[in-house]
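Please check this record.
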Amino acid sequence: MTDGLYTIAIEMSGAKRGHATGVLVLEGGRIMGGDTFFYYTGSYTFSRGKWRGEMIVNQHKDAPGLNLVFGNREVSCGFTGTYSEGAAEVDGTALVGNLSVPFHARLTLRAPR
């Protein structure tokens, strides 16, 4: 994995469908980032084209009139995936209360460190 700033596009499936886009900074095994309503923190490991990690997602802004999948909860996410020069993909599960929400995300490197 190349340390740097990435854009992320997330598609959630299962009982709770949704999508989100945001930014992530990956640096030395740490994840930091966010989008319009949420911020993300976490960690990852990688080796030989594969990576895995975990993130905690928290809401930082109210969303009147919107029904956010992760709304007003601390959400734990685990993921595994692949990476190549400048891009990565992951599949994972977000634990939203007692509900598991599968997701797929694509990351694109925008500014290497």
Summary: The first strand starts at residue 4 and ends at 12. The chain is about 0% helix and 70% strand. Residues 4-112 form a domain with the Lipocalin fold (CATH 2.40.128.380).
